[in-house]
């Protein structure tokens, strides 16, 4: 047919070229859209890939700010806003508080102000505190109440522990350890809702300073046992007491009127002969007799005579010792390695060096071989990043745990400004050593993780941002603040236990 002939005579489309043109147009369109988005003004909190949330207080009201200082939640709440996890927009406050009856309600909301988890009568953050009484919250679980019973949800609202308990609260000072109360019985759950110890016991206590040390359990007959954090029964509930001291699979237990040391096979290793066990470290057992402290071995042989006020095994066959109210270091042969010239000594967790305080401010630092490596005013020992920040003379210096000096830019790789001091004044340089801010401040702090640095002129503090621009002219008197820290125009409050910011 003629129509067919006209079709056959036309030039055929080159489909590869057509597809290529379509793809090119699509890429061009995407580039235009991307450029237009880049040119759009951004909210301050969107400039960072992640947003962090902080409780803040202004004009007698509570709100929430981001790590840029931007207002996330308006300042309109009478009761403090609790943020269990600063990376998640889950905010909790109290409402309808009646101080006479002790009753209240709770409200949970997100950054849009939308109320969350409304199926529960109460939703609460689970508070805890550290050795300095600073309050912190379990970041993986919330306590909820439904039909008068308590359970757990995670921060996404998923139920992780059924609401069937009379109460749930933390073991103070121990993370990941939530007591479950059922009538007069106690149990234990982790912060993800896993039952570690069923609610069958009269009382549960921590067996050490970490949840990994396990838990001492007491049954209704008053007998003691030991369960580890993996739910394994280490010692049956047959003892009259168990002390929260263990090591090398040895435990201090009481049967009848006296304490003894047993192994996991329930075999007696040392039967009495001491008033108190202070530490079990490998083959060494630090014990007290009367008012004196010494060291015996697991074979019950005296290793260090009982002539000290205190002893602590710090490894490498060395002991911090206290004698006549002064501290020094001895070895396993009771020879003095570091003279008794110090008012205090300690070995921090996860380090193998010793900090020895000569005065309330000046400290000597010894390595594991008891060689003096540093002397100065210790500002910080950061075990997470592995550095020591110490002032030696007028200089603030950084060292790794091998006592190799490091520059601040080697420690804080994301910082843009670095603190420098000259002739008693402080300024800032960039990572290449170029002076960004002249030596104009009477005091100053290093840049924090959010890009802000506190600066002081006279008796008042202010803040600069990551570019060296003034975020707040020095105007805040913070003489009563133990820690000086800023987020834009907001400074950390005086009461560190509550950990909030204010203007």
Structure at a glance:
Among the domains are: 1-40; 411-503, no CATH class.
Structure description:
With 503 residues, the chain is mainly beta. The strands form eleven sheets. The chain has a seven-stranded antiparallel β-sheet with strand order 30-31-32-33-34-35-36. A six-stranded mixed β-sheet has the order 3-2-1-46-45-44, with no helix packed on it. Strand 33 and strand 34 (387-392) form a beta hairpin.
Index terms:
six-stranded mixed beta sheet; seven-stranded antiparallel beta sheet; single chain; 503 residues; flat; 51% strand; mainly beta
Q: Tell me, what's the shape?
A: flat
Q: How much of the polypeptide forms β-strand, as a percent range?
A: over 45%
Helix content bin: under 10%
Through-space gap between termini: 87 Å
Derived from helix and strand composition plus strand pairing, the structural class reads mainly beta
Work out the oligomeric state of the chains in this entry: single chain
Uncertain runs are: 1-48
Number of DSSP strand runs: 46
How many strands, what sense, and barrel or not for the largest sheet? 7 strands, antiparallel
Rg (CA only):
31 Å
Output the strand order for the largest sheet.
30-31-32-33-34-35-36
Mean pLDDT: 90
Continuous helix count: 3
Fold topology:
Blueprint: H1 2-9, H2 15-39, E1 53-58, E2 61-66, E3 71-77, E4 91-98, E5 103-109, E6 122-129, E7 135-146, E8 149-153, E9 159-165, E10 167-170, E11 178-182, E12 185-189, E13 195-201, E14 203-206, E15 215-218, E16 224-227, E17 233-239, E18 241-247, E19 250-255, E20 258-263, E21 268-271, E22 276-281, E23 284-289, E24 292-297, E25 302-308, E26 310-315, E27 318-323, E28 326-331, E29 336-342, E30 344-346, E31 354-357, E32 363-366, E33 372-382, E34 387-392, E35 395-400, E36 405-406, H3 408-411, E37 418-422, E38 425-429, E39 435-441, E40 443-444, E41 453-457, E42 460-464, E43 470-476, E44 486-487, E45 490-492, E46 501-502
Parallel strand pairs: 1-46
Antiparallel strand pairs: 1-2, 2-3, 4-5, 6-7, 7-8, 8-9, 10-11, 11-12, 12-13, 14-15, 15-16, 16-17, 18-19, 19-20, 20-21, 22-23, 23-24, 24-25, 26-27, 27-28, 28-29, 30-31, 31-32, 32-33, 33-34, 34-35, 35-36, 37-38, 38-39, 40-41, 41-42, 42-43, 44-45, 45-46
């Amino acid at each position: 047919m003629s129509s067919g002939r006209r079709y056959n005579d036309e030039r055929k489309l080159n489909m590869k070229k057509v597809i290529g043109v379509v793809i090119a147009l699509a890429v061009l369109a995407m580039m235009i859209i991307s450029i237009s988005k880049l040119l759009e003004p951004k909210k301050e909190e969107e400039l960072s890939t992640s947003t962090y949330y902080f409780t803040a207080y202004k004009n007698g009201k509570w709100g929430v700010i981001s790590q840029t200082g931007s207002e996330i939640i308006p300042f309109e709440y009478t009761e403090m806003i609790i943020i269990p996890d600063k990376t998640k927009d889950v905010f909790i406050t109290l409402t309808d508080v009646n101080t006479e009856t002790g009753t209240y309600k709770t409200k949970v909301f997100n950054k849009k102000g939308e109320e969350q988890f409304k199926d529960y009568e109460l939703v609460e953050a689970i508070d805890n505190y550290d050795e300095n009484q600073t309050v912190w919250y379990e970041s993986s679980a919330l306590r909820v109440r439904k039909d008068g019973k308590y359970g757990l949800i995670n921060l996404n609202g998923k139920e992780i522990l059924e609401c069937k308990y009379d109460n749930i609260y933390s073991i103070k000072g121990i993370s990941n350890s939530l007591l479950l109360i059922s009538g007069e019985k106690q149990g234990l759950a982790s912060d993800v809702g896993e039952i570690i110890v069923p609610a069958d016991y009269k009382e549960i206590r921590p067996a050490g300073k970490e949840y990994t040390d396990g838990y001492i359990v007491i049954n209704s007959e008053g007998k003691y046992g030991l369960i580890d954090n993996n739910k394994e029964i280490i010692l049956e509930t047959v003892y009259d007491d168990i002390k929260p001291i263990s090591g090398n699979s040895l435990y201090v237990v009481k049967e009848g009127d006296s304490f003894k040391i047993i192994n996991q096979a329930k075999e007696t290793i040392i039967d009495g002969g001491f008033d108190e066990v202070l530490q079990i470290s490998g083959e060494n057992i630090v014990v007290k007799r009367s008012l004196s402290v010494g060291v015996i071995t697991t074979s019950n042989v005296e290793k260090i005579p009982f002539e000290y006020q205190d002893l602590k095994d710090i490894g490498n066959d060395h002991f911090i010792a206290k004698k006549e109210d002064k501290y020094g270091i001895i070895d396993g042969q009771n020879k003095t390695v570091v003279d008794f010239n110090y008012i205090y000594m300690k070995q921090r967790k996860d380090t193998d060096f010793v900090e020895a305080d000569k005065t309330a401010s000046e400290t000597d630092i010894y390595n594991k071989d008891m060689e003096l490596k540093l002397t100065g005013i210790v500002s910080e020992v950061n075990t997470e990043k592995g550095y020591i920040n110490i002032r030696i003379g007028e200089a603030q210096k950084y060292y790794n745990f091998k006592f190799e000096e490091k520059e601040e830019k080697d420690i804080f790789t994301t910082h843009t400004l670095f603190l420098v001091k000259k002739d008693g004044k402080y300024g800032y340089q960039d990572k290449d050593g170029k002076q960004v801010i002249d030596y104009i401040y009477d005091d100053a702090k290093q840049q924090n993780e959010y890009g802000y640095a506190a600066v002081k002129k006279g008796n008042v503090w202010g803040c600069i941002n990551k570019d060296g621009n003034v975020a707040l002219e020095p105007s805040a008197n913070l003489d009563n603040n133990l820690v000086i820290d800023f987020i834009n125009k907001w400074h950390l409050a005086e009461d560190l236990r509550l950990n909030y910011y204010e203007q």
